[in-house]
Write a structure and sequence with these properties.
513 residues; alpha/beta; TIM Barrel; Double Stranded RNA Binding Domain; 3 domains; 16 strands; binds 3-methyl-2-oxobutanoic acid; binds zinc ion
């Protein structure tokens, strides 16, 4: 097959994915995800936007030096400083790419950038030329392309190619396009910008505001696109990005429809998805394609009967192909070795402190619950790892009161070696607990998102609670697991507020909810 028949998988979990509200990945988290993306064998990892913050610079720089295999990319506005910062951060990578972008739609040019089309055109050319001083591999994106004047997009992209861009990426920044319309746009870009030049790759970058990101990206292959940009679990701004794993599995499952090759190791999909969920604090929708808890579950009798006879009656993908392992069930009699073995099989490696913490929590829950499923184990590990930098540790919670009086929550927390107690009343048990934690941290925090998902069924089900709290302009996520929703909520609050207190410094609060 000629090189144009390879489809390049460009993963932007660490850049566009991380732009989703409430996600704040540390450089260590990003390195762990990049290492896993290399195992998944994506072709390009967009490691960050080096000029956007010192943390992003450090992440791009560490990934460039430590992760081998994929091309490592950094995003840059079409501005000299951004491009220079990207080049600096990318030093040490075996292969690197600078991804230069500027908006081309009237609304972005007029309202956001206050630039004329001529100025935008010029900045794009200069940006690409500057990036080209540092690397041969330069990608150019006309942001908000699908709401831009198409002739203008084509002109700017043509000149970007003349200036040295080797990938032209067409973003549907606000997820506005429909598949037919997008194919028509991509066809024009392919014919008029690539124009037979074998050195130029045409790429797509679709957002999911209308739920069409994956469909639009796949349809663009028909028009000659040979790179698709996506994020694991589809995370990203607003409704998110194209989901990388859905693209990979669509291509593998429907080779008859997409005559392109990909190099991904699909068996790494499940672990990659769970790692991203754990580190971002973003839960995975149960019925999410490919990686959702129910993606390979069969409930109705007819379906079960069919699958028992022949898996393919109701399954178009083999769970093994995406690294979905069979259920591991551990109970209260399981020891350290069984626990270590189970988490190792799930692709999780823990430092000693994290292991100890996760094991103690596992025993405590297994005592109450009897059996802990693989989902439960993942949730425990997720809650207990990476939390060594804590201001307060959870000790216990007790709530009094019922429907006819405001409940009062009393929490016990450990600060250094001392146990402290805080009580607060609130509009419901969860609210009372939140107010008590806010007092304990002395943070003016607001609860902006609160979600409970059952991990197992039955009256003694384990539940996972995910929260997002806001302190000033910044949001922090937290996750807690318990058989008791109030305790799970308390654990999620303390995880989020610890991040707020430690990462941002204590913001002394009043009483804002
Ligand atoms: O959505 C978008 O337009 C982007 C660009 C920076 C490529 O993320
Ligand atoms: Zn985007």
């Amino acid at each position: 097959m000629p090189p144009q028949d390879k489809l390049i998988i460009f993963d932007t979990t660490l850049r566009d994915g991380e732009q989703a509200p409430g996600i704040a990945l540390s450089p260590d988290d990003k390195l762990a995800i990049a290492t896993q993306l290399a195992r998944l064998r994506v072709d390009v990892i967009e490691a960050g936007f080096a000029a956007s913050s010192p943390g992003d610079f450090e992440s791009v720089s560490r990934i460039a030096k430590e992760v081998t295999g994929p091309v490592i990319a950094s995003l840059a506005r079409a501005m000299p400083d951004d491009i220079d910062r990207s080049a600096d951060a990318l030093k040490g990578a075996d292969r690197n790419r600078i991804h230069v972008f500027i908006s081309t739609s009237p609304i972005h040019m007029e309202q956001m950038m206050r630039m004329t089309p001529e100025e935008v055109h010029q900045a794009a050319i200069e940006g690409v030329k500057r990036a080209k001083r540092y690397t041969d591999d330069v990608e150019f994106s006309p942001q908000d392309a699908t709401r831009s004047d198409i002739d203008f997009v084509i002109d700017v992209c043509r000149d970007a190619v003349k200036a040295g861009a080797t990938t032209i990426n067409i973003p549907d920044t606000v997820g506005y396009a429909t598949p037919d319309e997008f194919v028509a746009l991509m066809q024009r870009v392919y014919d008029e910008v690539r124009d037979g030049n074998e050195d130029v790759i045409i790429s797509t970058h679709c957002h999911n505001d209308l739920g069409l990101a994956v469909a639009n990206s796949l349809s663009a292959i028909r028009a000659g696109a040979r790179q698709i940009e996506g994020a694991i679990n589809g995370i990203g701004e607003r409704a998110g990005n194209t989901s990388t794993e859905e693209i990979i599995m669509a291509i593998r499952t429907r080779q008859d429809q997409f005559e392109v090759e990909i190099g991904a190791d699909t068996t790494q999909i499940f672990d990659t998805s769970r790692l991203v969920s754990r580190l971002t604090g973003y839960p995975i929708q149960f019925n999410k394609a490919v990686v959702g808890r129910n993606a390979f579950a069969h409930e109705s009798g007819i379906h079960q009967h069919g699958v028992l006879r022949n898996r393919e009656t109701y399954e178009i993908m083999d769970p093994d192909a995406v690294g979905h392992q069979s259920m591991i069930v551990l109970g209260k009699h399981s020891g350290r070795a069984a626990f270590a073995n189970a988490i190792e099989k799930m692709g999780i490696t823990l430092e000693d402190v994290d292991f100890q913490r996760a094991f103690v929590r596992f025993k405590e829950l297994a005592d109450r619950k009897g059996e802990i499923s693989e989902e439960g184990l993942r949730a425990i590990v997720s809650e207990e790892t990476g939390v060594s930098a804590t201001e307060l540790e959870f000790v216990g919670i007790h709530v009094e009161g019922g429907t006819d009086e405001d409940p009062v929550a009393t929490i016990r927390v450990k600060r250094e070696d001392a146990i402290e107690e805080y009580s607060a009343s609130g509009d419901g048990m969860v609210n009372a607990a939140f107010v008590a934690f806010r007092d304990a941290f002395d943070l003016a925090a607001t609860l902006v998102d609160y979600r409970v998902s059952p991990l197992t069924s039955g009256a003694d089900a384990m539940a996972e609670v995910n929260v997002i709290v806001q302190v000033g302009p910044t949001t922090f996520s937290g996750r807690g697991v318990s058989t008791d929703v109030v305790e799970g909520s308390a654990r999620a609050f303390i995880a989020a507020l610890n991040k707020a207190a430690i990462d941002r410094g204590a913001v002394v609060g009043d009483d804002g909810t």
